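Appendix B: complex inputs.
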Amino acid sequence: MAYKSDIEIAREAQKKPIQEIGAKIGIQSADLLPYGHDKAKVSQSFINSVQGRPDGKLILVTAINPTPAGEGKTTTTVGLGDGLNRIGKKAMVCIREASLGPNFGMKGGAAGGGYAQIVPMEEMNLHFTGDFHAITSAHSLLSAMIDNHIYWGNELDIDLRRVVWRRVVDMNDRALRQITASLGGVANGFPREAGFDITVASEVMAILCLAKDLKDLQNRLGDMIVAYRRDRSPVFCRDIKADGAMTVLLKDAMQPNIVQTLENNPAFVHGGPFANIAHGCNSVIATTTALKLTDYVVTEAGFGADLGAEKFMNIKCRKAGISPSVVVCVATVRAMKMNGGVAKADLGTENVDAVKAGCPNLGRHIENLKSFGVPVVVAINHFVTDTDAEVQAVKDFVAEQGAEAVLSRHWELGSEGSADLATKVAELADAGTADFAPIYPDEMSLADKIQTIAKKIYRADGAVMDQKILDQLKLWEDQGYGSLPVCMAKTQYSFSTDPTLRGAPTGFNVPVREVRLSAGAGFVVAVCGEIMTMPGLPRVPSAESIHLNEDGQIEGLF
Amino acid sequence: MAYKSDIEIAREAQKKPIQEIGAKIGIQSADLLPYGHDKAKVSQSFINSVQGRPDGKLILVTAINPTPAGEGKTTTTVGLGDGLNRIGKKAMVCIREASLGPNFGMKGGAAGGGYAQIVPMEEMNLHFTGDFHAITSAHSLLSAMIDNHIYWGNELDIDLRRVVWRRVVDMNDRALRQITASLGGVANGFPREAGFDITVASEVMAILCLAKDLKDLQNRLGDMIVAYRRDRSPVFCRDIKADGAMTVLLKDAMQPNIVQTLENNPAFVHGGPFANIAHGCNSVIATTTALKLTDYVVTEAGFGADLGAEKFMNIKCRKAGISPSVVVCVATVRAMKMNGGVAKADLGTENVDAVKAGCPNLGRHIENLKSFGVPVVVAINHFVTDTDAEVQAVKDFVAEQGAEAVLSRHWELGSEGSADLATKVAELADAGTADFAPIYPDEMSLADKIQTIAKKIYRADGAVMDQKILDQLKLWEDQGYGSLPVCMAKTQYSFSTDPTLRGAPTGFNVPVREVRLSAGAGFVVAVCGEIMTMPGLPRVPSAESIHLNEDGQIEGLF
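Resulting structure:
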């Protein structure tokens, strides 16, 4: 049997006007700012008007450590949302927006896959509603104002060598990683080293995704540290007086975007911070608004559960005052087999032993997730080559961990395939057994927070931090940043910092190479390993084959 | 009597839903891609569907050389459009989009002024429908792909020192004018000098504004020269294989944006190329589409008539196969007085002699415009301090030139104030006396085209080009670019290249400093004097006071 590609399915979507989708969750046309006929932003006045309502139940979708086999976390998020609607529940999905730049390197990602997708797929991979462009603009304005301040006399006494605010562009452009700026003489300013990151790595992105409202947004923007003086005292965005204009540039970008699934159920797609140097979740404003509109909100976290779910719990939930009723951990038979040592080329052959050998990775994630006080369901995202025996092996393993694994066939069948998963998830959410708590308190020292995550989540012997890093953390504590959560930046492929170490490794340390303060976003980043904040393009970038065909359709993007 | 500010008037606008505005010119809801409730893009299928219709009459609004007093070219364009509708004609306005970056330096510009404005004003000065962001993205993609090509082996043999494709950002950021890129070692590429221009200076912008359709757009993008080899042979965008993906990024940006005047008449606001290194007009696709939809289309050209109207005629009209039925040259009593030697502080005092002394600047523009075979009307854009005697002095002068000057009070009264102007303009357009022709033929040599403009339009003794420039022009002719029009880049403040030389100077030369080939846009730029393609921010940028007030309204932008 031949399966259709994601893009073929997406192009056949019977989309409804976005006004009809909005109406399903009580948003009238006047409160929807349309972008074309199939996308809209939700007005701030509508968001204000629903604040008094009770919250629905939040369902987090996370996954095992990613493998080249693919797990289908977003696909499962979308499939579960549709499944809940199918079994008569009022539910919606909240996911992140895609970054523009990387689509021109590798092929762009669908929002989901198979019959569990969010549309319009092309536009979500291109300019969408312009949120990331607005973030680029706001970031760039601050960049220009910092150098302009220095140019006109540097009243704030910024140390040229200690400007920590880099520039951004939403493009994979390695040539801009490290530059010398302000060359060419007096009229162009004071030469200094500088560089660009990709837009999703901007602290502005993280802030937009954590801010409660526009006022909170402006405050956080103002709190960002952009440079230091020779005496090491920080210079804030507020000192540059850029926070007001940046907020104006971000006014529309702060409003959640509503789109639809292939089954015409509503979805918020809003915000997209990096999952390494930032927290990797969709916006707080989208999630909290969705919770006022439907009884169940399905959302996802970045990477595997060790990074994404941990940050979702310890950063987003803590800051937004929300908590999940259930966590769904996505696994696939194929990924279990890879964890069990099977090469990608051999994944199509039944191998129950390899499945069993790979299960400990899943087991540790289940245990970790439970430690946040939240019930866990494993979703086995079905692939056509999976055998019954392999699926049963996963189910048996999960049962031993005191949880339940449900086979879900949303990719192939849409909500018909995810109804069982939805039923189980709704049952657990309704049971109200969740008793959520972050795994470390605000008042724990920054170094101990890092140790806690390294030991309790990664199961490392400990985090290794040299004196310079410990001193830096201490200094930030003295400056009043001690109560911030930490944001771990490490490889997503392993519990350890070695991407090749699959399964459930033990007996390793987590070396912390560097710490960074995101004072506006409100977290301290612990960098453990190489972190790339400006990707490059491959030898043959996908851009070379992207074009419009004779019918005006986009080819080569997927 | 106290007058309201532009922003106060704009905020009081009784806007109609954009679907109603579209319906006025026969565009149904399905063919409007809305961006919020008051902006939309016109679908390509609608544009295709009207191609068989006859063209309406095109009216060009231009002006004398700008003075600090302000002439109100856009205000008059909008006022005339409303005036034509008021006297029962079916008419619409086509103007350019505003650039984002400069709004954070100086206060942003309204689209028009007083009671002759286009709304929504704030959004038109911010992200609008994202066209400029799309242009920035497309331009940045090509930039990244060029350095990526070099990084992966430089198969095209690009000379690192001869990459002529600069980068762009829509921000006033002088620190980026000249940089060294690809620093930091092997992984970041080969270090080379580079730099950024502001987005409106991008050749992509000029192309978007000259392309007939998406196919033409892609062809022109492919034709752009991005670098040279050591043997001086050009490397094209097409060689980098970026043209297809750039077209995909520009797909929506190519569609004209429809908004409305304060009097709820339709306006296309689309494209905004620089008026010095590019041709400075709104898009061809907007203008040609508007001509299919209404009987009269009022559009404007950049700067004064010596630059803007000349390029409109010799570049845009020639390339698009359109021609104006009437040209309106905007003048004000105040500007005449400044041309006559009065200081700005004294403009409020009646001074008929100064008005008369300043009139020759206007006279020369009238003569120039007539040389294109098009009838000319002078619009005296009324200012509250103008006296009857001063207005009469302008009218008398214009009558001596064989044209007519009409006082227009659209700023104060909207269409009630511009009905006389509209009546005169419609009468001239309907008379059908225009017999348009560019002032030089395609087959004239590039050097002679420059000489022709310098002598016939500027009334210089001649253009001065050294041998190097003449050789360059000759080389381009040999390469097949000889039939392109030339795009003059000189000061807008004078017929000469000396911005302080007001009035109608003679006895000067026009030194051509440099020539550039915009092979995709399809013109050769002759740079005469200092041209800034990346502005800086002032000591106290307006961004410092831009913010959202308690009601969520934008303050400080205007």
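Chain B touches chain A through 73 residues (CB under 8 Å).
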